[in-house]
Amino acid sequence: TISIHTSAGLSVEQKQGIIKLATDFVAKCVEVPEGYVHIEVMDGISMTFGAKMVPACAQVSIMTVHDQLNRKKRSRLAKFLSGLLFQYGVPQDRIQVTFPQEALSHIAINGELLGPDIARKDMKVNNNKADDDDSFKNAMKSLDKLEWLPIGGVVLVLVLVLLVQSLEFRNEAAVGVGLFGFVSVIMAYGIRKKRMKEALKKNKKSRENNAKKIK
Questions:
Q1: Is 112 helix (H, G, I), strand (E, B) or coil?
Q2: Nearest alpha carbon to residue 15 among 25, 26, 6, 24
Q3: Do residues 5 and 97 make contact, with C-beta atoms less than 8 angstroms apart?
Q4: Percent of the chain scored above 90 by pLDDT?
Q5: For tag attachment on the chain, is the N or C end more exposed, with fewer CB atoms within 10 Å?
Q6: At what angle do helices 171-214 and 114-146 cross, to 10 degrees?
Q7: What is the rounded distance in angstroms from the CA atom of residue 163 to the CA atom of residue 133?
Q8: 119 falls in which pLDDT band (50, 70, 90)?
């Protein structure tokens, strides 16, 4: 919400021009839809700046939600609005711009406070996201345990081959043990890959279901 109070006399067309230009700029600067920008212009008010009524002066108040504007955005808004009013006869050194802040729960549109509903929705989104993240982390932990299967299989194969050779078994036996170990490693890798696909698929489905519940 932007309130512009000035001692300058403005025509209806001039006030409409200020409102239109200010609405366009503020919406882009603050990154909100134009429908969320409310502007009032009150002219011809008895005002002083430094105890002097002339030349014209102005008081601009830009009310926003807490932490909605950083320093850079506040600076851009102040320069734009000061320059805009200067075009209508108000010296920039006699324009004061303030940035009061309000909690979201202190603002109502269409008779409804914005805070509680939005807070509940944000909480629901965050909780669902946390649930999704936890389920995904648990799935990945189980996959991490399987990560060692291929490595363990290779070590097992080497140990068995060395054992067979040290016991002076025939080479055919060593080859058989090696083949068995190789097949075991391939199977372990296949199991791990399958589990990973299942975990990713389950996580994706969970996120889609939560998104539908929020809507």
A1: strand
A2: 6
A3: no
A4: 38
A5: C
A6: 170
A7: 45
A8: very low
Residue with structure tokens 């189980």? 142
Q: Which residue in this structure is represented by tokens 């982390």?
A: 137
Under DSSP, is residue 4 helix (H, G, I), strand (E, B) or coil?
strand
Could you tell me the pLDDT band of residue 177, with boundaries at 50, 70 and 90? low
Structure tokens at 115: 């805070």
Give the pLDDT of residue 120.
47
Give whole-number Cα distances, 53 to 97, 125, 184, in Å: 18, 53, 92
Q: What is the pLDDT of residues 85-115, one digit of tens each?
A: 999 999 999 999 999 998 888 888 888 887 6
CA 28-81-57 angle, to 5 degrees, is 165
| Element at 95 (helix H, strand E) | strand 95-98
Is 11 within 8 Å of 92 (Cβ atoms)? Answer: no
Specify burial of residue 108 (Cβ count, 10 A radius: 0-12, 13-18, 19+). Answer: exposed
What is the three-class DSSP state of 54?
Answer: coil
